[in-house]
Design brief:
The complex is a heterodimer of chains A (315) and B (125). With 315 residues, chain A is mainly alpha-helical. Helices cover 72% and strands 4% of the residues of chain A. In chain A, helix 3 packs antiparallel against helix 10. The longest helix of chain A is centred in the last third of the chain and has 41 residues, at 274-314. Helices cover 48% and strands 11% of the residues of chain B. Classes of the chains: A mainly alpha (315), B mainly alpha (125). Chain B: Keywords: DNA-binding, Transcription, Transcription regulation.
Chain lengths: 315, 125
């Protein structure tokens, strides 16, 4: 039994490898497909993790159901109870984290919307007077459609054509409901620490997706690149360095130069070369297999416990 | 005829461009001035229609200017929206999953990198 439990527990290690594979896969794909791959991987691997934990947690209860009382199960299979306790604790922690993160998400959205006030007229642009060049997409909320929030500082930092890039970018976020993908990865990261590494990757690819949509809506990749670079430089020159940048602040080459560079290159396409296609399929398979394996191991454990319990009673 | 790329887009998108031009100017603009500010991307009549619609919604105010009107974006009287929104933006929590900013913070090397990318791009080829 200990060996079988260890085998199922091994499924909890898989997401580390699978998350790395998912990031490699995303790097091979155009932004939209990359976002789908990363979000899908986050969901699958979180699901596999929960399945494996439930499998480990339910062994003593299943044994009791099969008429093997807890003291006997603990005596026959010494690893069962401590492993079930650890798995139960992990599941409880995950539940608390997921619920808390979901509430946090809703409350940020609620507060941002209440900050816009009720007097905001219709239309997709909300201008906030203020010198700090900032802009973001405010997702739809309770039947109100999403807004582009932009400061006058940002409006004045860009020329009219560049502003259309900004609007096209934020509209792409709103139309694609990108915040739902982002929050999915955020919640999945609460289930398994290995999935945290998917978030910065997904955030970058979501920005790239919106950049590409904006570039094709203005019909000019170089204009899109310039607009993003100019906005970032304007924001950097008026920002207060050292004032809480959050964990995503990067030293070295951050997401903005990568986005600008990508726009200065030709539009991304799906891998065409045989080698790249094979690599993409291989990586996708690796991610899917590790999620399915976790599920399969959990199911196998269930069957194994039933079988051993019956054998124990008849033997 | 005269149906430029811009005018086939939804009305809401055109409104955003016009409204942004008014905010960028920071002074009342006539429809002709707005059209100029937008680099002639929209027909004058389209600009006038959009400005009238924005005025009816209360998004902009207007004043007499010669034979027509000059338009000015309205701020809510107390600037309450602005203050509330700035307070939200100043908060340090992880908003990444909710509000995605157009541009994230730049790292130490990024500024230099961006400038060199743009310079490289501007070079005649």
């Amino acid at each position: 039994m200990t060996l079988v439990l260890a085998l199922v527990a091994l499924a909890l290690v898989l997401p580390w490898g699978a998350a790395a594979a998912a990031r490699r896969l995303a790097a091979l794909l155009p932004p939209r497909e990359a976002c789908a791959a990363l979000t899908g991987a986050a969901l699958l691997l979180a699901g596999g993790t929960v399945a494996a934990l439930i499998g480990l947690f339910h062994v003593p209860f299943l044994a009791a159901l099969e008429q093997v009382p807890l003291p006997r199960a603990a005596a026959e299979w010494p690893a069962t109870v401590p492993v079930a306790a650890a798995a139960g604790a992990a599941l409880a922690l995950q539940t608390v984290l997921v619920v808390r993160r979901w509430h946090e998400h809703r409350s940020v959205l609620a507060r941002a919307w209440s900050a816009t006030g009720d007097a905001v007229p219709d239309g997709d642009l909300l201008v906030v007077p203020g010198p700090d060049p900032q802009a973001f997409a405010l997702p739809g909320w309770r039947g109100r459609s999403g807004r582009i929030v932009v400061t006058t500082g940002m409006i004045r930092a860009l020329d009219p054509a560049e502003r259309e890039v900004l609007f096209g970018h934020e509209r792409a976020h709103l139309a694609g409901r990108h915040h739902l993908l982002s929050v999915t990865a955020y919640l999945a990261a609460a289930v398994h620490p290995a999935l945290r590494s998917l978030r910065p990757a997904l955030d970058l690819h979501l920005e790239r997706w919106a950049d590409e949509t904006a570039a094709s809506s203005v019909g000019n990749r170089r204009l899109a690149a310039t607009a993003i670079a100019r906005a970032a430089l304007a924001a950097a020159s008026t920002g207060q360095p050292g004032k809480g940048h959050g964990p995503l602040r990067s030293v070295g080459s951050g997401p903005v130069p990568q986005r600008v560079e990508a726009l200065l290159r030709p539009a991304p396409v799906r891998p065409r070369a045989r080698g790249a296609q094979a690599a993409a399929v291989g990586l996708a398979t690796a991610v899917a297999v590790s999620a399915v394996l976790a599920l399969g191991l959990a199911y196998g454990l269930h069957e194994y416990v039933e079988f051993t319990a019956r054998a124990l009673l008849s033997g | 005829m005269g149906d430029t790329h811009g005018e086939r887009r939804p009305a809401g998108e055109l409104e955003a461009g016009v409204l942004a031009a008014l905010w960028a100017a920071g002074r009342p603009l006539t429809p002709g001035r707005v059209q100029e500010a937008l680099g002639g991307a929209l027909a004058r009549t389209t600009v006038t229609t959009i400005l009238t619609r924005l005025y009816e919604k209360g998004t902009v105010s207007r004043e007499r200017s010669g034979r027509g009107f000059a338009y000015l974006p309205t701020e809510d009287a107390s600037g309450l929206t602005a203050r509330r929104m700035h307070a939200e933006l100043a908060k340090d929590e992880d908003r990444g999953a909710v509000l995605s900013r157009f541009v994230s913070q730049l790292g130490d090397e990024d500024e230099r990198l961006l400038r060199s990318l743009l310079d490289g791009d501007g070079r005649p080829s």
